[in-house]
Design goal:
12 helices, 10 strands, single chain
């Protein structure tokens, strides 16, 4: 019999991560960065990036693979690997039933999907973790798919790209999930010995055993803006060391400043269509290069006074295109080196200064007097006993004469 103060409520249904912050039945979204209400279709057109603050929403595995491959075309690999329950784990729910529910919700057997396609015309393998499947936790299937992808890339000399979004190792599999760290690291070591590039893309969040293993072993480590990357969470670290962490701790920009990440790349620049787009003019047409000679002729390489290809070439080209002004009569031709100075004027009418005051007296040391800035005459400071000009009296003497 249930107690009178205890209410028997049905458990709340789990919501999809894509619509967890939605308002109005999927028509609007609330941004976690700027807390603004956004139109859902506008966010989808912008590759799930907030158009106001640039906050990156999480992508599903299918959206991530279509974003990276050319024209979104790829072939799915290792789809026949399914998880098992060797430990018969059970907490509030049996692990077997939990796997069945997540598979029905996401449409894939585990938290990883691998595909083969072309990135800008080059054949590549891409494996992406799905955070919607049990937080992207790493289990036996995740480790097996990554190991097979690394072996296939080493055998075919194909670059491997891994996109991470995980909370760490899966606790329902115990020591079996921790063994995947060493298993994947050994497969990536063989890939490095085969001299095949391995690139990791860290997204929000990347924590736990994933960060401690294959996420930080890439030849080039990329990260999305403001992605949470670390082993333990910031709250656990603050409670352990009892200190206040700096602002932006464990974010991708913080890790970039401290050398853990090579480049922070926005999501728009990861798309091949965005990278291959050419800069366009005002009306949407590509600007044609400026030609100096006839159509089809090569541009002549000019050499200036400086090194070849430097500013001297640009100056020589500008002088060749610029029409020369006619010289005034009576002046000698200009020296092309620029070292010749203007000769002193010998003939012609005298200047106004010579007509008024006469010629300037010669300098004591001889030679031409250097140009100096003309000094403005200032009135001298007069003391109490200084002599004044005649006809101008002070106020005290004027009052004395006036009133006797």
């Amino acid at each position: 019999m249930a107690l009178w103060f205890r209410k028997d409520k049905a458990p709340r249904a789990l919501r999809d991560m894509r619509t967890a912050t939605s308002l109005g039945e999927g028509h609007f979204l609330k941004c976690d960065g700027c807390r603004e209400t956004l139109y859902a279709k506008e966010v989808e057109r912008n590759q799930r990036v907030c158009p106001k603050c640039g906050f990156h929403f999480r992508l599903s595995v299918d959206e991530r693979l279509k974003l990276l491959f050319d024209d979104g075309a790829f072939q799915l690999l290792f789809a026949d690997v399914h998880p098992t329950d060797p430990l018969r784990f059970r907490d509030t729910k049996r692990y077997r039933d939990r796997l069945r529910d997540y598979e029905a919700r996401t449409g894939r057997p585990d938290a990883i999907a691998a595909g083969e396609g072309r990135i800008e015309g080059m054949k590549a393998l891409v494996a992406a973790l799905d955070y919607a499947f049990m937080g992207g936790s790493m289990g036996s299937v995740v480790g097996e798919v990554l190991a097979r992808a690394a072996e296939k890339a080493a055998a075919e000399k194909t670059p491997l790209v891994v996109v991470t979004a995980s909370g760490g190792a899966r606790m329902q599999e115990g020591i079996l999930s921790l063994m995947q760290m060493a298993k994947v690291s050994a497969a990536l070591a063989k890939l490095s010995e085969a001299r095949v590039p391995y690139v990791t893309v860290l997204t929000d969040p990347t924590t736990g055993g994933v960060t401690a293993s294959f996420a930080m072993l890439g030849d080039v480590t990329l990260a999305e803006p403001k992605a949470l990357i670390g082993f333990a969470g910031p709250r656990v670290i603050e409670q352990t060391i009892r200190q206040t962490l700096p602002e932006g701790f464990q974010r991708s920009e913080f890790l970039l400043d401290h050398g853990f990440v090579d480049v922070v790349v926005p999501r728009k620049e990861l798309s091949p269509r965005r990278r291959s787009a050419q800069p366009r003019g005002r009306r949407g047409r590509c600007r044609a290069p400026r030609r100096l000679g006839p159509r089809g002729a090569r541009r002549p390489r000019l050499r200036g006074p400086r090194r070849q290809g430097g500013r001297g070439d640009v100056r020589a080209a500008r002088q060749a295109r610029r029409p020369r002004r006619p010289r005034r009569p009576g002046l000698p031709p200009r020296d092309p080196s620029g070292d010749a100075r203007r000769p002193p004027r010998t003939g012609g009418p005298p200047s106004r200064r010579l007509a008024r005051r006469g010629p300037r007296p010669p300098r004591r040391g001889g030679g031409r007097r250097p140009y100096t800035r003309r000094r403005v005459a200032r009135p001298r400071r007069r003391g109490p006993g200084a002599r004044r000009a005649p006809g101008r009296l002070s106020r005290r003497r004027a009052d004395t004469r006036r009133f006797g």
